[in-house]
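Progress narrative, Year 2. Work on HPr kinase/phosphatase C-terminal domain-containing protein from Aurantiacibacter sediminis advanced from sequence curation to structure prediction during this period.
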Amino acid sequence: MANVSCVSMRGRGMLITGEPGSGKSSLALALLDRGAELVGDDGVALAEQDGQIVASPPPITEGLIEIRNVGLLEVPTTSAPISIIINLNPDAERMPLGANEALLLGHPVPQVDLYPDTPALPLRAEAALEIHGQIANTA
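Result:
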């Protein structure tokens, strides 16, 4: 899946979507600074495993994250089951009643739209994971 970024926090994948230039890589970088691990930047490989959608690093850009105005940074990567989709949307609702739902390879996944232009974005994304994210199967 192209034009997405993905990180894993505490074993739970956060798929970051949005328009080009919306800040997907910047959010991923900020989440890495908060303890997340990179799955993929500007693309991920998705597969169904044991009833979950698992994101893995794409072979072409594995281990690389773009830092706008700086260049590419090499970082370790991991794979993770997708627990939530964070959609960067400048028209995000201020106080939604809950998470939306998106289909990913035919499986429903919680989706939260977040306003991208705020310094609190990584905190909001992490809170969305805790409040709305699915718990990964451990079986």
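The helical segments are 24-33, 121-132. The chain has a mean pLDDT of 93.
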